[in-house]
Amino acid sequence: DPNDLERVRSRPSTSTHRITAVGHAHIDTAWLWPLRETRRKCARTFSTALALMDEYPEYRFACSQPAQYAWMKESYPTIFEGIRQKVAAGQWEPVGSMWVEADCNLPSGEALVRQFVHGKRFFMQEFGVDTGELWLPDVFGYPASLPQLIAESGGEYFLTQKLSWNDTNKPAHHTFMWEGIDGTAIFTHFPPADTYNGNFTAGEIVRSVADFKDQDRSSHSLYLYGWGDGGGGPEPDMIESARRLRSIDGAPQVELGRAADFFARAKQEARNLTTWVGELYFELHRGTYTSQARTKRLNRRAEQALREAEIWSVAVGHNYPAAIFDSSWKRLLINQFHDILPGSSIDWVYEDAERELEAVVEIAGGITTSAQSTLVGSGDDLTAFNVNSHPRREVVEVDGRCVLVGAPACGWASFADSIATQPQPVSVSGQVMENGLLRVTWDDRGLLTSIWDKEARREALAPGAVGNALLLHDDNPKNWDAWDVDADYRTSFVQVTELVSANVEMDGPLRAAVRFTRKFGSSTLEQRMVLDADSRVLRFETEIDWQEEHKFLKVAFPVAVRSSRATYEIQFGHVERSTHANTSWDQARFEVCAHRWADLGEPGYGVALLNDCKYGYDIQGSVMRLSLLRAPTHPDPSADRGSHRFTYALMPHPGDFRDAGVIAAAEDLNNPLRVIRGAGERSLIEVDTPQVVVEAIKRAEDSDAVIIRLYEAWGGRCRARVRTSLPGTRAFLCDLLERNRDEIQVRDGQLELDLTPFKILTLKLIV
């Protein structure tokens, strides 16, 4: 644009701001096209980049997503060899740390770890490059546990620009320190051009300098140019523009360079940077916590299935199926790409994703079945396997009857028909269900009118309100259908009250269950309300034939608890968020992401809302709500229509959520005890405090050592004693890539660990 050039010429040449311009081609691993087409997009884009490097020796090209490189190695070996040569020459720069540019809200903590493990290992093995940055320019928000994961994988830097899209509060800084829930701080940069698809116009370059919000603290910024999303990358005209800019008086200082060099220089010269503490919440695309619910459920199941299969395979101690785990994890990780798992792709993508995730669940389930059979042998006894890191005592259904069983932490135990100590029974009488802890009452519409806590001697539901209220909202976002939920959806809804039938299915003494059938719109819902003896967890096992369009289904529990803050589980910890809308920041968080639980508590009492495959929550005032289903029509015109299964649960509790066992209850809901024939008893890992949760037990990537990953879950300091029956005479603390740091003593199968708030520790046991 001649006007842009004139403005550049008229600027005084006093600016000390330096721009590092990096060629870039953001290639969505899937979006409006399936994975198979992305392979071809990568081949075309990468071929173009290689050709430009021969024509323009100064040209540098940054490319993330090792999964895409792996495709080239497999299907286009000539292109891959060209990439290898240009990496060695310094023109092609592998960037980023994850296997794909994954969504960061929805994957489990361990899944995020494996993104780093597989991503960084590929770059190191293929190119000898240990990348130092997490590169996620287009991802829909970043949890407060991410800085620790970056640091624990050996990284120092973080890049995104997505928060420039915020609909309410624009980011106040482009260069700053980002501090996570554990205190880890990472050097963070948002390119001030607010794009990862720059065209290298003079106007964009000028705006990069003029709009840079930290000029008093830093004099460097990064500029990413090249066609993206569907690939393409830089064109010759863009590189020619860079050459012309260098010859114009008053133009900003622009050099074609490498991202790694930019980060090193920018961090070194920055001074007095502002620190942002906590999550980087994206004030847009809030519907991605809910859209494409079947894929989200399969993702949760696949994460859990792989975790369980690894644990029992380690217990067997031989024939560990490392190659199968490697390929299965990669199948899962690629489907956590930021346009697949969030629900913003075409129907073809979800046909592929569901097929792949179902295969992962089946493969992992087969490994688990084989390993457990090996561990307990044959026989008529029954053995319960517990994959969680706390001992359990709960009701299971075996051969059509209920049995109360117990199992040790991360272990298994045989049981007779019942445990000797029997609980106070649970029963149903009329429209009342009760056990020794709770009495639940409902009305003729099947809506809860009371949850009386017998132990605390108080009501859990708000006065005059009904619980388990299904709310059907109109859902017509202005711009991004599958992506967005607009704030005004809350003003237009109907409450689902039509009850077709209510039938008592189980009436104690160990389990009570009532089935409610409802119809609304074009949909039918079957819901089984379940309460077990000695349990505070009131479950709602739900099946629905969902046939709505542009509707948003939520469930609401108004509770008799008052607090200005609610607590939500994220990966490797939890965060607090406001329950009011005092500020624009609070107002923007009208829909938030959480994992297996959220809790609203006041001193002495609280209520937790648990789930087995949902992620969207909102807690406003004393009303706790969970997002169940959406029905967008773009880019998938039939998104989410059809059958769904999910479970959510309400857990009223005395005391704080920590002491009440909310974290353990959410783990148990997501990982039911598995009962098989055979005999035996063993605990692989026991931790003497519920503050510490075991996230993974696996074989090391490069040896027969055993890796144990655990974290402090309460947000406090503690000393934990870990007892293990796994073989190991030496132990090391290591990073996420399993590189040794400090040796720790092992005495009689016990280790003592000091943990700070939300600290992740990775242990390596060596035989």
Written account of the structure:
The chain is of the alpha+beta class. It has 3 domains: 2-284, Alpha-Beta Barrel (7-stranded beta/alpha barrel); 427-670, Golgi alpha-mannosidase II, domain 4 (Beta-galactosidase, Chain A, domain 5, Distorted Sandwich); 684-767, Immunoglobulin-like (Sandwich). Helix content is 25%, strand content 32%. It has 15 helices and 44 strands. The chain has a 9-stranded antiparallel beta sheet. Strands 21-20-26-33-32-29 form a 6-stranded antiparallel beta sheet, with no helix packed on it. α6 (146-152) links the parallel β4 and β5. α2 (35-55) packs across α4 (77-89). Residues 7-14 have low confidence and may be disordered.
Short description:
The chain is of the alpha+beta class and 767 residues long. It is 25% helix and 32% strand.
Distance between the termini: 67 Å
Binned strand content: 25-35%
Shape: globular
Task: Characterize the biggest β-sheet.
Answer: 9 strands, antiparallel
Our Rg estimate from Cα atoms comes to 27 Å
CATH architecture of the largest domain: Alpha-Beta Barrel
> Would you state the CATH class of the largest domain?
Alpha Beta
Structural category is alpha+beta
Sheet with the most strands: spatial strand order: 22-23-24-25-34-31-30-27-28
**Helix percentage range:** 25-40%
- Uncertain segments are 7-14
